[in-house]
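Saturday, quiet lab. Running sequence design on the C-alpha cells for the scaffold JK sent over.
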C-alpha cells in the first residue's frame, strides 16, 4: 500500500468518527458540529487520546476509562467501514478519473452519506429524510456535472424505487419502509440502469440470507423482529457500483 492510500484510509477513519457523532447526536438537541465528545453514561468529556479512531477503542478494550461502561461497537465499525470504502473509492477513481479530483470529492461525499444512513438505520430503524434527500441531491448533481443525462436511463433507474414504494404502499408499511424507497431514488440516479437493478436484486438476496442467518444464530431474533433493510440496499448499491461491469442481468437467473 502506497503512502497516499494510507493517508486516504486514515482520512476515512476520521470521517467515520465524525459520522458516528452525527448518528448519536442527530435529533437529540445536541449540536453535531460543536460540543466535546463525552461518555453517554457518566458524562465525562473525552480526551484527545480517547478519540483516536479504532485505536482508542482497542486500547480501552471497549470500555469507558472512567466508569467502565461499554462503548458501542458502532464506533470502531463505522470508522473502519468508512476507511475501507474511502480507500476502495479512491482506488476506483485512480483507475477511471485520475485527472479529475472533483469526481473523487463527490464520491467521498456520497460514500459518507451511504455510511451515515447505514449506521443510523441500524441504530434507530429509520432513514431520516434529510439523509436520503441529501444523497439524492448529490447523485443528481454528480450526474449533471460529470455525464450527460439520458432521460430514458433516468426513468428506468427510478423504477426500483417505485417498486419499493409500491411494497410500502400496499403493505401499509409492514413489508418495507418509505425511507427505503427514498434511499433507492438516490441509488438509481447514482448507478443508472441497469446497475440499480443489480443493486436491488443483490440487496434482496443478501438480506434474505442474512435474515436466515440471524434467525438461526441469535436467540433473541424471531420472524417478527424488525430488521432494517436500508443497510442491505446500500450494500447492494456499493457492490453494483464496483462490479456492475462484470454482472449480467440474466446471470442472476441462469448461472
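Result came back. Writing it out in full:
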Amino acid at each position: 500500500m502506497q503512502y497516499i492510500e494510507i493517508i486516504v484510509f486514515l482520512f476515512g477513519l476520521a470521517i467515520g468518527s465524525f459520522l458516528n457523532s452525527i448518528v448519536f447526536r442527530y435529533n437529540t438537541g445536541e449540536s453535531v458540529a460543536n460540543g466535546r465528545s463525552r461518555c453517554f453514561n457518566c458524562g465525562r468529556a473525552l480526551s484527545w487520546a480517547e478519540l483516536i479512531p479504532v485505536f482508542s477503542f482497542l486500547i480501552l478494550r471497549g470500555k469507558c476509562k472512567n466508569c467502565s461502561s461499554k462503548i458501542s461497537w458502532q464506533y470502531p465499525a463505522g470508522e473502519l467501514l468508512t476507511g475501507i470504502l474511502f480507500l476502495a473509492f479512491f482506488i476506483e477513481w485512480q483507475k477511471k478519473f485520475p485527472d479529475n479530483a472533483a469526481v473523487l470529492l463527490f464520491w467521498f461525499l456520497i460514500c459518507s452519506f451511504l455510511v451515515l444512513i447505514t449506521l443510523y438505520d441500524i441504530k434507530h430503524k429509520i432513514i431520516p429524510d434529510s439523509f436520503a434527500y441529501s444523497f439524492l441531491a448529490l447523485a443528481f448533481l454528480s450526474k449533471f456535472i460529470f455525464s450527460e443525462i439520458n432521460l430514458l436511463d433516468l426513468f428506468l433507474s427510478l423504477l426500483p424505487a417505485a417498486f419499493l414504494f409500491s411494497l410500502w404502499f400496499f403493505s401499509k408499511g409492514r413489508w418495507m419502509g418509505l425511507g427505503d424507497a427514498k434511499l433507492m431514488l438516490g441509488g438509481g440516479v447514482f448507478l443508472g440502469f441497469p446497475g440499480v437493478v443489480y443493486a436491488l436484486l443483490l440487496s434482496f438476496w443478501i438480506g434474505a440470507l442474512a435474515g436466515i442467518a440471524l434467525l438461526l444464530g441469535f436467540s433473541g431474533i424471531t420472524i417478527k423482529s424488525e430488521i432494517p433493510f436500508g443497510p442491505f440496499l446500500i450494500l447492494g448499491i456499493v457492490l453494483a457500483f464496483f462490479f456492475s461491469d462484470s454482472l449480467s442481468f440474466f446471470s442472476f437467473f441462469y448461472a
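Notes for JK: The CA atoms of residues 5 and 60 lie 27 Å apart. The longest helix spans residues 101-124. Ask whether to fix the surface positions before the next round.
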